[in-house]
Design a protein that fits this description.
The chain is 44% helix and 18% strand. It is of the alpha/beta class and 290 residues long. The longest helix is centred in the C-terminal third of the chain and has 27 residues.
């Protein structure tokens, strides 16, 4: 799956004999912090509900986080969702001794009500219609927990004002368009506004700072597999029209969800030294019932 709906194959961890999810917890910064924080949010929401929640862990990969979640909160009704069939054996191995269910189909085919949808690391890979479907299946007290690796914030005051006033967020081959006039001009004339071009340049510059840090972190942890994986991701992410790996500003994501009818309940970042250039991982709570 892709932000730009590409049919390129995803990484096949069965062929490469590498469980990327497990490796990332050892050789990538901030992900373990995100795991713990999402566990906290789930526990708190269950307490508010006064009962075990029905939760769907969206595009959960090999099930690393799903297994941790069901171990910590065994009374949950957990649905582990993954439609990449080569990953299902990993899910079965990890969840086989639990009461979690595996849903090996696209999320949009799930039609039963849910209390929580967890989107952990999926947002920058997926077409946004998955969020529309999340709104449909979440109950009136339901929440979307969205955690992801974003590009550290690169919008200056002028760009932030443009994003905050956007009537739409339309990603045109990687460029962010914010109104119907921009979209029509691009579609008819293949022409972009100077603001859209400048914003993309700022994204690429911010990404390069982030990926240098990530690769150095992996090498310091003696995790060569993570370092080389991140170098490939950096290559793809720096290409404007590459949809398999395309991280954008948290501000842009927030406006996207706002325009889709979600209300932001909370936001948490995990950079230990509060350096803006290294603030990439965020976890949000949203409700789709405003």
């Amino acid at each position: 799956m892709s932000v730009f709906v590409s049919d390129k194959p995803q990484i096949n961890i069965e062929e490469n004999q590498v469980d990327v999810s497990a490796l990332m917890r050892r050789g990538h910064p901030q992900i373990p912090n995100g795991d713990q924080y999402i566990l906290k949010l789930v526990k708190e929401h269950c307490q508010r509900l006064g009962r075990p929640a029905r939760i769907l862990d969206l595009c959960c990969g090999s099930g690393y986080f799903a297994a941790k979640l069901i171990k910590k909160l065994p009374d949950l009704e957990l649905i582990a969702n993954e439609d990449e069939l080569e990953l299902i054996p990993h899910l079965q191995n990890r969840l086989g001794n639990t009461n979690a269910k595996i849903f090996p189909h696209p999320f949009t085919e799930w039609n039963e009500p849910l209390d929580i949808v967890i989107s952990w690391g999926s947002f920058h890979h997926l077409p946004r219609h998955y969020l529309d479907h999340a709104k449909k299946v979440l109950g009136s007290d339901g929440i979307l927990i969205l955690g992801d690796e974003f590009c550290p914030e690169y919008c200056d005051v002028t760009h932030a004002e443009r994003i905050n006033q956007a009537e739409i967020i339309h990603i045109a081959d990687g460029y962010v368009l914010t109104n119907t006039s921009e979209v029509e001009t691009y579609q008819k004339e293949n022409r972009l506004s100077p603001m859209a071009i400048d914003l993309e340049k700022r994204r690429q510059q911010a990404l390069w700072i982030w990926y240098r840090y990530v690769v150095d972190f992996a090498m310091a942890k003696n995790c060569l597999e993570v370092a080389t994986y991140e170098l490939r991701a950096a290559h793809d992410d720096l290409l404007t029209n590459e949809g398999e790996e395309h991280k954008m500003s948290p501000l842009i994501a927030e406006q996207e969800l706002k325009l889709m009818g979600f209300k932001q309940l909370s936001k948490q970042s995990f950079c230990s030294d509060d350096t803006p250039e290294l603030q990439s991982f965020f976890v949000y709570e949203f409700t789709g019932h405003c």
